[in-house]
Amino acid sequence: MKNIKSTLMMAVILLVAACTPNTSKENTADNNEWQSLFNGKNLDDWTVKISHHEMGDNFANTFRVKDGKILVSYDDYDKFDNQFGHMFYKDPFSSYHLRLEYRFTNQDMDDAPDYAYRNSGVMFHAQAPNTMTKDQDWPIAIEYQILADADDGNPRPTGNVCTPGTDIDFHNEMYPGHCLNSDSKTYKWDRWVTGDLIVYGDSLIIHMVNGDTVLQYSKPRMGGGVVTRADSTIYIPGKALKNGYIALQSEGSGIEFRNIQIKKLD
Asked: What is the DSSP string of 75-106?
């Protein structure tokens, strides 16, 4: 993404830098402003919704806790069969700074779509899980897309944005595609990567990868396509997305998440 040189945008970036925590043990005053979304022990604060299953049915123990991390696993699957899953945190948020670490495992379902290879994501400003239909594939949401090296020699940036059932503005114009690549590096699948997401309601959204700003866009709202079998009373094209739920994705590749923290912003 080209640098945005306006004074206002630079001020926002400086504000984000000021809000970024120092994770050293000595800086406990700043750390106290952050809230952990995952207790490292269980999934009590999270709700699973997997396509073709009822809300709350963690089919085949897809989302599980292992060694203090959230693990997306397909050990108990016979086949993927388009059973796209999402696990939602219990509370909605509006303006915030979300930070987490992730890495893929070496597990990939043979019958998952080609695009799902080493592909996962964090959905945000998402509809509530109890408003999704049983067979709905993805929630209406904005997605911080997570990718890793496909071992084919081609660049594969992470921290991208995808828009299931939504639209965004990029460079002050509606972006016409479904996914927009960031300026991040390509990372090996087994490397821990830190992702940051800074959201200001229905205005500015900033993606960061390992401390670098890699993508900025604005005005999230319902629209576009991609989501299938959604409740038509929930899907209202043009409606601004000022808040919503955060969800971790299962899309056919194994992945681990840890150190999931959030700081609310004014």
From this structure: TT-S--TT--EEEEESS-BSEEEEEEEEEEEE
